[in-house]
Structures are given as structure tokens and as C-alpha cells.
Amino acid sequence: MFSFNFKEDDIETNATESNGEMTECEKSETQGVSIEPKLHDLKTLLETLPSKVSYSTIEIPKADGAPVLIPRRELFDIKAQLMAEDQTLNQSIVAGLSADDILPSVYEGGFKTWECSLDLAQYLSEVYCGKKLSDEAVRHIIEVGAGTSLPTLVLFSHFFKNSHQRKHPIHLWIADYNISVLEACVMPNLVLTWHLAHFEAVAPREGDLEITSNLISSFLEDISDKSICIHGISGAWGDAFCQILDPLIDPYHLENMDIMFLASETIYSPSSIRSFVRVLSRVLRATRSAEGTTKALIAAKRIYFGVGGGVDEFLKILEESHGSANSVWESKGTGVGRVILEVVMNS
After folding, report:
1. What is the spatial distance between Cα 228 and Cα 50, in angstroms, rounded to a whole number?
2. Residue 199 vs residue 292, higher pLDDT
3. Coil, strand or helix at 310
4. 3-class SS shares of the chain: helix, strand, coil, % to 5
């Protein structure tokens, strides 16, 4: 187990050096039994929502206009739900939330908002959310290691506010290691984002939202009217994970398809970078071999002290897979450097 020294709130700002042995951490992750990947239906995930969620709102700055407002479920509220459900795995996750940020092969930090996800969310809000939506292709957004899913939420808010009935649908694929993150964090955040976008003039920026059957019905009806489809994936990266995405990236169906692959803080552990690159390269290569278009954006710290991962290790493994990356954004100032990389496959 290791910790990045989050504060009590759920936004991580500084990865600190650790005196723990990285080899022991990697050993634990390698020996642990990984969760088998599984595709989850939106309606089934929504059925797990509690009757009420507590939330606050993050402002995602925009250089050329008003900030994007993204509501998130409060961490204390998530903990309360996990503890009330009294499942063995949930209790292990709650223990991890109290003492460590990650429990390898058990909980991968999805309930907390990692700093680089804020970077990627802001980048997307500035670069993409000011553009008029094209309806010339089926659009797929794939976010892996999503956690609180801020980057996808920024795009979802944009799509909802700017999409009318479309000829081609928009698909949001949201993946996290733990299904409990999808159920207790991602689903509430999606409903909260929809609610704020729909009732922005009157919705409070923090408080409680009652989750009623009428509210969920309205949510499903609205996203259907705007041709937005939402899918959840839980479990570990690898071949089985790729098989879930195979129908999506079938070269025979990629014509007139746009795919955006997003990830934040997914390269902190050397033992999982190869699996991550395998998924990333499979999506990029499939699209490259057809007439579809793909953009892959990876947000990360340059180095994760005490853990062993970081940009250099990622680029090394990416190069072995015949890929490369260019920095499209870099943090300024002191502290651990952060970047957003745009990745391409060269062959």
C-alpha cells in the first residue's frame, strides 16, 4: 500500500516522496487477483443510486469566458453509502480511503479527484468546448481510469447544452477498475451534471439532490433525445478489457467515426503501464487502419515519487509499441511537473 498524501477533501494536489519500497508495492500489485473486466448497462448502474446525494461544484476555468461548472458527489457521502452497504470489498475500500490512496488490485483511487484530471478537464473546456459540434460522424469518448470522471463530465455538459437531435449518436465509455466507483461516484456525477446543465439558473451550487424515479426518467429521456449513450466498464486493463472495446474499434465499422481516448494519472505504476499502453495502442491502431479519426490525450505527472512511474517510463514503453507522444500542455511554476500528452501510433 502507498499514499500520495491527499488532504481530507478529495482533490489531490501534491504527490509526495515516499519512503516505502516501490518493489514491495509492485509485488503486491502483481500477486493480487485483478478484477475481471465487465461491461455495465446504464440503467442497471443507475438502479444503484441512493435516494439522495450530497454534492459541491468545481469551477473549471476558461481563458476566454465563464468557467464550466461541474458538480461532484462529496467524498463523505460516498463513504457513508459504502459503509451502509456493508460489503467486504466496500469495507476494504473505505479502509483505503481512510489511510491510503490506493490498495493494489483492490482499489485504484477512483473516489478521489486527481490533480491531472483537473488539468485535462480544463484543457478540454478551452480547446474543445468552444467548438460547434459536428454531426458528420458517430462520436465516441473513451475515458479509462476515470475515477470522478471530470474530463468526461466537461464534455458531457458541453454535449448536453449544445446538442439537439443528432443524425449520429455520441457514446460515452467510462471505465474504472472498481464497479463501486461507477455506481457511487460516476453515475451520481453524471446525473448531477445533467441536472445543473438543465436547471443552471436555479440549481444551487452545493447541497443535496433527491434522486427520484421521475428524476432518473427525465435524465434518461433527455440524453436519449440528444442521442447521448452512456456505457460503464469495470475491471483491469488487458486482453479481456480490449475485447469489450473490440466491437467499437472494428475496422469495418470505423468509417465516419470519431474517437477520443482520455486518461488522467494512469501511468503512476510501472507494473500497469504496459497494460494501459496495450489498450491505448489497440484503439489507436484500429482507427488508424480505417477511415475513422482518433485523438488520445493522456494527463500525468512527470514523475511519481516512491512509486516508479511517470512520463519517461510511459514514453519508453510506448516507443517499444511503436508509438510516440507530443506535449500539448505543461504546468508552470514549482512542484512536480504535469503534462498533457497527445499520443499517436507510428505503425
Report:
1. 23
2. 199
3. strand
4. 40, 25, 35
